[in-house]
Each structure stands twice: as structure tokens, then as C-alpha cells.
Amino acid sequence: MFKQKLLVKIELAVMAIMLLGTSLYASKAFGKAEPSPQKLVDEVWQILDKNYVDVSFNHQDWKAIRQQYLGRSYSSNQQAYGAIQEMVAKLGDRYTEFFDPQEFKALNNDLSGNLSGVGLELAQNEKTKALTVVAPIAGTPAFKAGILPDDVIVQINGQITQGMKIEDAVKRILGPVGTKVVLTIQRGSQSQTFNLTRANIAIYPVTYNTRTTPVGKIGYIRLPEFTETAAAEMHRAIEALEQQQVQGYVLDLRSDPGGLLDASLQIASMWLKQGAIVSLVNRDQVKDSYNASGHPLTNKPLVILVDKGSASASEILSGALQDDHRARLVGTRTFGKGLVQAVEPLEDGSGLKLTIAKYYTPKGRDINHVGIEPDITVELTEAQQKALLQKQTLGTLADPQYASAVADLSKLIQSGADHVSLKSGK
User: Fold this and answer.
1) What is the 3-state secondary structure (H, E, C) of 224-261?
2) Are strands 120-124 and 131-136 parallel, antiparallel or unpaired?
3) Contact, 261 vs 6, CB < 8 A?
4) Is 308 annotated as catalytic?
5) Which residue among 255, 312, 410, 421 is the active-site one?
């Protein structure tokens, strides 16, 4: 099965701004001679040749490209890295990227939930190519400063970002903890400057508490990213809230840019009794379907909060629960990323992230570039977003999207929807 070849990861272009930390992958070169630069170039070409989702390779003569890059003379791995980046860029896929050893360690940190930096999720606007904020990570310097989704980073420390590759932008934002980085942001017609201090960023995948409403206690769960520990944290949260006998749940996926596929599958099974979660289709049109495990932790009513910063794994989870009628979605249309990436470590400690498949919701919806429309749309103005961030009142009744979710959940509780929402109870 193609899903077993590589570690599958669902995520946005470049993850939160990161520094070094413990790598999830041991270098294949440990105890062995370093691969030659030419061998490294060919290794990347071979991985793409066997696994990349587009068999036309962006209408390139892929075999001729191999000969072109293997015909060069390389005196160092650094020269090979530059050539590999050129080669990968020919695919025209912003989600397929090469990482040198330092960058790959940083990527692994994100997978494990250990980050340091300013706490931004970045993407490149496909139409304008502008460096765009998908979402600030809650509690980080960028979040506290008031940077918002859809803000465009036009300068980094005075350097104009127009035409800058996203990996180059990330390198400029990287730096030791305690040092400064100055970001100039374009928000609509206004330009703002943010002086940010880089910091250690601990991502706690799940936070939760109980809230009192006129229809009884409800559980509020916030999931900022699908990291390695997210599923275990979610399991503990639901069990704890069940012991407190909540009547229903609000799951907040706003500004959650995604993460690991396995985490999204495990979490979906905590809410779904049966049925499909997602299907992946590779370049050979081979379809792999992933289904719920059949052991949900609760059947109580569920409302999910989403917005334009909810992407990838967030969309897999919310799309599955919406298609199954297990949950209702409140907020705004999601980001719209229906592609699957895999991460492959290379022999010298560098790594390759490549698009290997498209994914579809249980009802066969292709959400790529489209997103998922919520059942109840509640827009936030820029002023509202800024006020909620500054006052730290997201997820309270001062938050219009949360307030709408609670109102909808209350109706579901009153109507006894907990027994209707699962297929087995219809």
C-alpha cells in the first residue's frame, strides 16, 4: 500500500518559525560514510520519480532533468542542496520542499510539538505569491503582538519579501531565543511594523475545561495543531470531561493548520462510531480509505469551530464529522488544502517533503483550493479579531463565533441530538 512507504504528514507549506532541537529521525549516515553530493541529488530524484503525485512532473521531462543535474560537478553538499532546490522547484508545488540538515531538524521539532521562534504558520499565496500568515500560534510572540490570519509579510528586518522563497523567509525569521526580528505586515490598505522577540514555544496540543450554560455543563476543547501527542491529549481531555458529565462539546479548530495524518484519524475515531474518515488517492489512482475504529469515547452533541486558518488535518477531521452528521461546523470557510505530503529523511540528515496524494472527505468532496463551508457562518471583523486576541477572550461568550457555537450546541442538547447524530442511533 502506498501509505506505508513514507511517513505521511498533512501540513501547510512551512510550519511555525522554528529553531534547533531533538530530531525525530536518526541520520541514515550514522556509522557510515557521508553520501557523495551527486548521490544525494540522485536520491532525491529517485524518491520523487517513484512517489510524486503528478506523473507528468509539472509537464517536465523528468528523465532529462535527472541527466541535467547528475551531469554537473559538485564539490560539496551545499552545492548539491542548491541543485536539489532548483530541481524540486521545477515541479511548481509549494508543498514539495527540500530541507537541509538544520532545516530538517526544525521540521522534526514541529512534528514533535517542540518549537522556538515567533510562532507563525506561513504559506505563499498561490495567486499573488505573497508571503501570507495562515495563523499565529496561540500564546506565542506573534499571537500576543496581534498578527492575524491573512496578514501579508512584506518585509523581514527591512528586507522586501517580494519574490523571496518561503524557505528563505523562514531562515530570516529564525534566530536565537531572546533576539529580535522586525516584521512589516500589510493588512488590507494599512502597513504595520511588529518588533518581535524570539522565544521558546511550547505547543500544548489540547487544552480543555467545562463551561456552564442554561442547558447544563458543556466541554470546551481547543486543539491548536495535530502533533505526535495530540491524540493522547485529546483522549485524556474527552475522558476527563465525560467524568464531569458534560452534556455536549465545542471543539475549537480555528487557526489549526494541520499536522500528522495519524493524529487526525485517531481523533476522528474518538467521535465517530463507524464509517469513513477520509480517502487518499495516489498518482496511480489507487485509493486508500481510512475508517473509524468503532470505539468512540462519547456520543454527545458536538459543534466544531473553524475558520480560514483551519487547514489540512483540521479539514480532514471537520469534513469527516460534518459528512457523517456527527458534528455541526460554525465559523467561516476553511483554508482548502486537500493534498497529502510525506516526509523522507535522507542519508546526510537532510530531508524531502513531497506531495504523494490527494484526499477526499467521506462523501467524496475535493476541498483543495475550496475549503469546507460551515453549517453556520459567523464572520469576525478585523477589529473583533484584534480585540479578542488582545483581551485573550477567544473561546468565551465575548467571542461571537464561540457564542454561536454554544447557542447551536444548546439546541442540539435540548433536542436530544446525541442519539440522532450517530448512524447507529438513527
Assistant:
1) CCECCCHHHHHHHHHHHHHHCCCCCEEEECCCCCCEEH
2) antiparallel
3) no
4) no
5) 312
Identified catalytic residue from 9, 105, 308, 337: 337
Residue 14 has a pLDDT of 33
275-302 tens-digit pLDDT = 999 999 999 999 999 999 989 999 999 9
CA dihedral sign, ordered 12, 108, 105, 21 = positive
CA atoms within 13 A of residue 135's CA, in its CB half-sphere: 22
CATH superfamily of 118-202: PDZ domain (2.30.42.10)
In this prediction, residue 113 has a pLDDT band, given cuts at 50, 70 and 90, of: low
> How buried is residue 387: exposed, middle or buried, by Cβ count under 10 Å (0-12/13-18/19+)?
middle
- Work out the average pLDDT over 380-395: 84
Q: Hey, where are the domains in the chain?
A: 2-104, 118-202, 207-338+359-425
Question: In the prediction, which pLDDT does 123 show?
Answer: 79
Query: What are residue 272's phi and psi, to 5 degrees?
Result: -95, 135
**Residue of 323, 348, 399, 408 marked catalytic:** 323
Instruction: Report residue 230: phi and psi, to 5°.
Output: -60, -40
**Model confidence pLDDT, tens digit, residues 116-155:** 679 887 877 777 889 988 778 777 899 889 998 889 999 9
Position of cell 493522547? 232
| Cα 336 to chain centroid, rounded | 11
Q: Is 207-338+359-425 in CATH node 3.30.300.30?
A: no
- Check residue 8 and give its pLDDT: 59
- Is 42 part of the annotated catalytic residue set? no
pTM of the model: 0.77
Is 323 designated active site? Answer: yes
**What CATH number does the domain located at 2-104 have?**
3.30.750.44
**Quick count: other Cβ atoms within 10 Å of Cβ 75?**
8
> What's the pLDDT at 62?
97
Cell numbers 524518491: residue: 47
